[in-house]
């Protein structure tokens, strides 16, 4: 078992991107989760192609993998956090435009997937209309994703319309199980909202998992915490990711801790490597018993 660990650049917003990548490469990270926003790669500023090429070159220079994230808070509306979304009453076409840009950027920088979420449904919108809006949005995105070979990794987000893994499965069923529509797992969210424990959720999702964010969290409280501050048992989760054959980045997701980014990135990687080692030890200790059965 050997997982690839990354760090979310939404937790390095006080750093220039060239500095953030240098720090993370020096620490030994395998890659980064790149949130498209004004501080590192603004998807709406002029000269997008040139700036994307520069980021791709920086990633290559530091031998870092990348996955593209689209959860910027105010990239579309300076007054309303995360708006508009795929389920908003108006402006959904602007979210589609952002996601199409993200797919093209992913192809340029070498990201195998674009991570996204549904958004919070407005009050009073019937459930059928909520599904219809998400279906329409994803259906619009799929042809471009298929043409460029990019997975659309839908993240169940606490409080949003698509909130649980089963909601992603339901959307896939409604759309005929498109190959390019897959799943982003945030390990903390699994503890926060799912009924099963996080490791069981990973095993149950299997090869549907296209992207992994990792952080600690407590049951019922949507707060991304440094490792050890929440309730997640990490070695079984890492073992489960290895068991299902996940080969993408497992990226630390601590967007509200940017003030301590370098130190927290260092301690987070140490924690994950230790948790992976403990997961391997558990697997080895079980193996003789399993053989004897």
From TrEMBL:
Domain Xylose isomerase-like TIM barrel: 22-274
Annotated InterPro entries: IolE/XylAMocC-like (IPR050312), Xyl_isomerase-like_sf (IPR036237), Xyl_isomerase-like_TIM-brl (IPR013022)
SUPFAM superfamilies hit by this protein: Xylose isomerase-like
Annotated transmembrane regions: none
UniProt keyword list: Carbohydrate metabolism, Isomerase
Molecular function terms, GO-annotated: isomerase activity
Pfam families from the UniProt entry: AP_endonuc_2 (PF01261)
PANTHER family (alphabetical): HYDROXYPYRUVATE ISOMERASE (PTHR12110), XYLOSE ISOMERASE (PTHR12110:SF52)
Name listed for the protein in its UniProt record: Sugar phosphate isomerase/epimerase
Organism of provenance: Terrabacter ginsenosidimutans
């Amino acid at each position: 078992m050997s997982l690839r660990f990354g760090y979310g650049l939404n937790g390095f917003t006080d750093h220039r991107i060239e500095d953030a990548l240098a720090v993370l490469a020096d620490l030994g990270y395998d890659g980064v989760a790149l949130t498209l926003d004004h501080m590192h790669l603004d998807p709406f500023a002029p000269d997008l192609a040139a700036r994307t090429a520069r980021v791709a070159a920086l990633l290559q220079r530091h031998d870092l993998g990348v996955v593209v994230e689209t959860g910027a808070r105010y990239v579309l509306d300076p007054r309303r956090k995360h708006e508009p979304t795929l389920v908003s009453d108006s402006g959904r076409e602007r979210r589609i435009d952002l996601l199409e840009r993200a797919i093209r950027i992913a192809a340029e920088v070498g990201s195998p997937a674009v991570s996204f979420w549904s958004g919070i449904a407005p009050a009073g919108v019937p459930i059928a209309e909520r599904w219809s809006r998400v279906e329409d949005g994803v259906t619009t995105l799929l042809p471009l994703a298929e043409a460029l070979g990019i997975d659309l990794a839908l993240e169940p987000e606490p409080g949003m319309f698509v909130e649980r893994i089963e909601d992603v499965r339901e959307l896939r069923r409604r759309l005929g199980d498109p190959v390019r529509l897959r799943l982003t797992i945030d390990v903390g969210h699994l503890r926060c909202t799912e009924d099963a424990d996080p490791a069981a959720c990973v095993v149950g999702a299997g090869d549907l998992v296209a992207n992994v964010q990792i952080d600690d969290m407590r049951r019922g409280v949507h707060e991304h915490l440094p490792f050890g501050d929440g309730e997640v048992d990490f070695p079984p989760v890492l073992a489960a990711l290895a068991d299902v054959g996940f080969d993408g980045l497992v990226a630390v997701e601590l967007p509200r801790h940017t003030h301590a980014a370098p130190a927290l990135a260092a301690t987070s990687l140490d924690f994950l490597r230790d948790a992976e080692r403990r997961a391997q030890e558990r697997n080895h200790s079980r193996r003789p018993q399993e053989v004897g059965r």
